[in-house]
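Case study B.
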Amino acid sequence: MTARRPNYVAGALTAFWLVVVLAPIYVLVKASLQTQPDYDSSGPLSLPRHLTTANFGHVIHSGFLHFFVNTGIITAAVVLIVVLLVPPVAFAIVRNRSRTVTVVFRVFLVGLTVPIQAVIVPLYFLISKAGLYDTLIAVILPTAAFSLPISTIIMTGSMRDITGDLYEAMALEGATSWHTFRHLVMPLARGGLATIIVFSALNAWNGFLLPLILTQSAGVRVFTLGLYDFQTVSSIDAPAICAAVVLSIVPILVVYLFARRALIRGLMGVGGK
Amino acid sequence: MTALAAKSGRTRGSGGLKVGRPSFLWSLPAITFFAICAIVPLGVVVWLSFTSWDALGSPAWVGTANWTALFHDPTLTNSFKVTALLTGLGVVTQTPVSLLLGVWAAGYQRNRAILSALYFIPLLMSATAISIVWLSLLDPYYGLPHELHWLFGNSVLGHGFLFSYPGTAIGVLTFVGMWQWTPFHTLIYQGGARAIPEVLYQAAAIDGAGRVRQFVSITLPQLRNTIITSVVLMLVGSVTSFDTILILTSGRPGISTTSTSYYMYIKGFEQFQFGDASVIGVLLVVVSTIIALIIVRVSGWDRMRSTQEGM
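Model:
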């Protein structure tokens, strides 16, 4: 669009929305550095009288470090499963045109519309019967499974961008499918791989529902559940709650700073195109 | 593997070379894993809906008893209304804002890029974190309603007791949903708007079309598929999600924010009537699939591959 007279309507709307988005973020960060009496007497928006880091110590002492480790294990395992399973199936979908593989792709497309919330009861039943209730594996398996459809579709899109000439060049040299996968497809689909890693990691890191229904003891608690419990127990201690929330966002913020592109593409995976 | 590949790989498209094509075995691990963890539960939920199970022992077959009981359950009937209301309000509030912001953010100006990065922040937070922050922020005694009494102190907003009245509780859920999801839909619209060919705007400008006219005659029609995608995601998302409700209102006051999916959670994981919960689970799967299919069919989304089709 070419430069024209300033767009006041857009200016007003974007300024308003900026306030709506940033006001809670400001309160969140500010309150996490404030004492409880200070917060309670002055209100969320007003400037703090003095700053303290005591809330973070309080949060860490109430077991959050352990919850972060649990969430970290789940996230790493989910990413590992997705990275091992998705590139091969995407390769098959793009390069194998048999009916079977077409069906596989359709299944993943349909799988995209199955909401995980709707199947929490059977998941709880199956996990209990398998003797996995209240373990980290119980959370890992379904979290990874429900990351597969979107990841497969993102990865397939990424591999479709590789031109046929390159495959032919590989074929002329007599490359096996493993060789083609290893030396042609994976190097060229790195963008897609980064996207699905970030997407599935974010999904696992922020997961709440599956840990809520599939775990119960403190030993396997994840930080989202920790936040929820913390909120129930010390609902009046807003600064401590805010400190816990701030701690939970820091790792994602780091990813956001270093892999912004992959993160945005991952989030748009569903809606893009 | 190569032999299998040669057998199954048909010779279409690129030159007809069969070497190096993967066999279907490459798709086997992923599809098996997905089938066990996601497809099998779909079957199990249907079976469980015809049983009685309280988490101890084994499910006992009770035929259609759960189904008939639930269809006379006023809480379930009310939950449909709550779900429809929350879904409708979600679409109506999020679509205009994210559409306008997305189209605006599609411009490549530097200030737009910086602001877009800021708008993006809520997406980094878990639904749990967002709900908990807003719960603290909207506390009637220590939160915004107390500090901004001039704004929240009127009777329409329950004198600041937002969680105590059905209307304001629904309002809170709608607003928090908007805060949480607008960034995501803004991104979708940004992508869609960037795909609109520049030449259309140039032609319109030559014809003397102003900013509003260009938006109505070019941007909106060109974003048709993007709007459909975004609305489908909103519908399916708000029909099924309930973590925000669980943390913010717990379905209260009364049952005025008890959505269908939250009621399923209550039935199953608080009252341990997993048969009843499964009936609601089946309904949710069916409804969300139907929504997706109807919209895809009606709009012809499946036939149109890109926004540039027909150019």
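The first helix of chain B runs from residue 2 to 8. The remaining cases will be described in the next quarterly update.
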